[in-house]
Amino acid sequence: MPYRPEDLELDEGYWRALLEEVEKLPIPPTQSPSHQPTLQASAHSTPAEETPRPAGVASESTPAWAALQEAMAQSTLLSVEVIGYNRGGLIVHYQGMRGFVPCSHLKAISPDMDEPTRRAALADHIGRHLNVRVIELDPKLNRVVFSTRARPTDAESAPPEIPPLLRQIRPGETRRGVVTNLTHFGAFVDLGGYEGLVHVSELSWSRVNHPRDLLRIGQEVNVYVISVSPEEGRIALSLKRAQANPWETIEQRYHVGQIVHGTVTNVVTFGAFVKVENDLEGLVHISEMAEGNFMHPRNIVNEGDRVVARVIAVDSQHRRLALSMRGVFADRQAEGENGK
Q: What is the rounded distance in angstroms from the CA atom of residue 304 to the CA atom of residue 331?
């Protein structure tokens, strides 16, 4: 996509704010403290016959700036190392300098990502190398902006060949694949030569704290194809949609008053979540945990505990299964005694 300055909205105040965040980043492991990269060229010894330039003002004659100017003029791809991120994008290192790649110019960041997912995706780039083009260069302001989306030169403008799998796969299909990577925001699955992404929200019908709680690298899985974008090289997948939605038939399997057995999966201040079957959890509110007074649900249960509870409400439309542990043990004891 062509670069538009308004995409960045980098007025001087915003740019200074970004730089303040940049300076808080750790020094890359490959750099010694005396060679910490900045957005200006690294300091070089100044020959005696030259007049030293003012501090903080980069010289257009330094090799790094010259290389960047040529790369921008020729629209040449450069390799940069990602050393950090902030709210606006990635901080990268190139020949002793720091530059910036805005989120709007990162192929891996989509506009529909929520804030936690976007930050997790940005953090996942740290330590990687990106192929980028220079889209803005201002030595006087020490400004270098890169893009992974910038328009290529005429020689490179021919569209890349689309892998056969991207032409064959169709939304709505169920495919077999192998988990290749697990991140905070989801799981990558190889479908036979090309990877698709299962977002964390598409892993299970129940809550998932992290993909590694559900999957492991190398595991074979069935995935449902949500969407395919051959031009962008993206495949959106779902693990949960490849299985029946347990909430659609919950009212056929559970009713008020029914006794259920389950495992505590998460304890929070307002109660505990209990898994009663695969991909289906109910909530025991703190007021339904036990008789008497107690400070926190953890005084009653912990993750991994097996519990017995009574169903007190079923709502398939809002995906809610309300449970109660109060008096269940005593009631079952009484039932046993009456049955003798």
A: 24
